[in-house]
Amino acid sequence: RKEVEQDPGPFNVPEGATVAFNCTYSNSASQSFFWYRQDCRKEPKLLMSVYSSGNEDGRFTAQLNRASQYISLLIRDSKLSDSATYLCSSYGGSQGNLIFGKGTKLSVKP
Amino acid sequence: EADIYQTPRYLVIGTGKKITLECSQTMGHDKMYWYQQDPGMELHLIHYSYGVNSTEKGDLSSESTVSRIRTEHFPLTLESARPSHTSQYLCASSALGGPGELFFGEGSRLTVL
User: Fold this and answer.
1) Which helix (H) or strand (E) holds B36?
2) pLDDT class for A54, splitting at 50, 70, 90?
3) Residues with Cβ within 8 Å of residue B77, at least 6 apart in sequence
4) Do A87 and B59 touch (CB under 8 A)?
5) A59-104 per-position pLDDT tens digit
6) Are B5 and B104 in contact (CB under 8 A)?
7) Which of A36, A63, A101, B42 could bond to A88 as cystine, CB 3.0-4.6 Å?
8) Are A101 and A23 in contact (CB under 8 A)?
9) Residue A97 has what pLDDT?
């Protein structure tokens, strides 16, 4: 089982829609989780950190479910500019470094 | 904006050549990383460093080598490039005492012919 797993999508949604991504992690000891956004052929950039039960920043909400070992990202009122790949990450592995999922591709259409 | 820089951004080179990808950060971060990412695929950690004179291999085996002589500089070297090395290489850094955010450079896209 991969340490961090995501549905690769693509998620094709109309502008204004609400969309949610889930990400499962296998390391039950992991304490810190991050959602990164990566545009095509660009570097990942931090979107949100999730250290406890959840975090909210404007239209974006991240939640952590430790019992089921997953984190989610909710995007409300989707904009065209939200189109990107969203990478889930958590600390784990044999060396305790940040492990990334494959990413979930979101495409917001007019 | 993160202060971490990679050069070259794009490199097309022939098989057998030696290449060095440069990475520098001005944030004073102790931890630095090299990730490899193929198009549409996940990031794979190939090297990391806790600080000066510290280098460790990551989760993905790589024929590349790294050095950390200065805090701000973490170059990656391929002694003899092959087509299988064609990929995007992303450098990142973070403050020691994490776990915390990784800051990424813009990447070096390597094509070996």
Assistant:
1) strand B31-37
2) confident
3) B18, B19, B20, B21, B64, B65, B66, B67
4) no
5) 999 999 999 999 999 999 999 999 999 999 988 766 778 889 999 9
6) no
7) A101
8) yes
9) 81
